[in-house]
Amino acid sequence: MAHGLGDSGAGWVDLAKNWRRRSKFEEVAFIFPSAPSIPITVNMGMMMPGWYDIATFADVREAEDEPGIIRSQKYFHELIQKEQDEKHIPSSRIVLGGFSQGGSIAIVSGITCPQKLGGIFGLSSYILLRDKLRSMIPEGNPNQGTPIFMGHGDADAVVKYEWGVLTSEWLRKEGWPVEFKTYTDLAHSADIAEIDDLEKYLKERLPPLEEIETSARQ
Predict the structure, then answer these.
(1) N or C: which end of the chain has fewer CB within 10 A?
(2) pTM
């Protein structure tokens, strides 16, 4: 789960704690990485945690920080590989997601991942490097059929709601299965309804291993 600009991985740990308290996803290991501190142009060059630089909030797709995006994409691909190598977790049991720019980097890293993932999600997010994204897809396009979940508040004044809608439409046009959920009057944040929908999505993508084994025997 990748956080948004200026936040840290610790800012989303309560999400996993809440699920743990309710005995949800007991076989799942949650990872909440923190982005490096980099100068952010839109904030007058101030250093803060960010997966890539943002030039303006008027249109976050303007003057995209391609080197920063590629650097973070590589980081998440290496993290996924590390989970497979060290913990022997199959890629089909790995879901990559995030909020705001964390969701955006999760989407681009997910659909360009060389291994087939269990799922990809982005909350209050938008597409990155749209004009060259097709050229970044690995041979065989292993995540062409990976379900993508997107949630967006229609009162979001930071990452505009229409950017989320356009992103979902573009992904569908390019062949990815996308479920897009709208949250009325929600600003640039996540609320209970959105987290509940994310939980349902994760339950579908990461069913208990016992269910998988039972299904395989039938």
Answers:
(1) C
(2) 0.94
